[in-house]
Amino acid sequence: WDRLSIYLPVVLMGLFALGTYWLVRSTPLFMPSKPVAEAGHDPDYFMRNFSVKTFDETGRLKSEVAGTDARHFPGAETLEIDGVRSRSFDPEGRLTTVSSRRALTNSDNSEIQLMGEALVIRQSSRDINGKTQPSMAFRGEFLHAFMETEQVKSHLPVELTRGRDRFSADSLDFDTRAGIVLLKGRVKGVLIPTQTP
Fold first, then answer.
1. How many angstroms separate the CA atoms of 87 and 4, rounded?
2. CA 96 remoteness from chain centre
3. Regarding predicted confidence, which is higher, 109 or 196?
4. Is-contact 98 123, C-beta < 8 A?
5. Residue 104 pairs with which residues in a beta bridge?
6. Confidence (pTM)
7. Contact indicator for 67, 82 with CB cutoff of 8 Å
8. Residue 160 above 80 pLDDT?
């Protein structure tokens, strides 16, 4: 019995190890659940040759976005558009048109990132004093247009045309409401004098 009591702990450990091995082998395996795909990486719908319009509370056209192809990403609530053309009207009825090879817009079309042959044109208008403000055009490979705040920004080279005046720069930050244009980098400009009658 003395010798048996010496080896008893080793024998019991062996039995526990065999029991654990048997338990692991006979327990059914549960398949791990598939990870849920993150929303936003895959589009949930597509459109071809389309036009989307938004209206204000009075029923007046506020903006329209059209394109050849579009993909909607639900996670980010963005719409990626090929061959985009857009127009929007501010509260005073001034028209701004936008076009580019590709664009990324948010759900309410208030913010549009234009990529490839980007062009934003704000039509001429009259200010509160009745003075005519010339049309403005922005061209570049990338433009970021904020339709509600009437801003256009770019970190890439751009060309700005205001009436007959022309400017080019390495980057742009334009605020229509404040009437401020911030051009950075190598800035070049051609100013045409106005003719008085």
1. 94
2. 19
3. 109
4. no
5. 80, 113
6. 0.68
7. yes
8. yes
CA distance 50 to 84: 10
Alpha-carbon span 16 to 19, nearest angstrom: 5
What are the angstrom distances between the C-alpha of 155 and each of 137, 142, 150, 182? 17, 8, 17, 12
Query: Three-class SS of residue 195?
Result: coil
* Residue pair 122/94 in contact by the 8 Å Cβ criterion: yes
Strands 158-162 and 111-122: unpaired
Give the tens place of pLDDT for each residue, 23-63: 666 666 555 544 444 444 778 888 899 888 888 888 888 88
Total count of residues recorded for the chain: 197
d(CA 70, CA 52): 11
Of 25-34, 50-59, 78-87, 186-195, the least confident? 25-34
Paired sense of beta strands 125-126 and 151-154, if any: unpaired
Cα Rg for the chain, rounded, in angstroms?
32
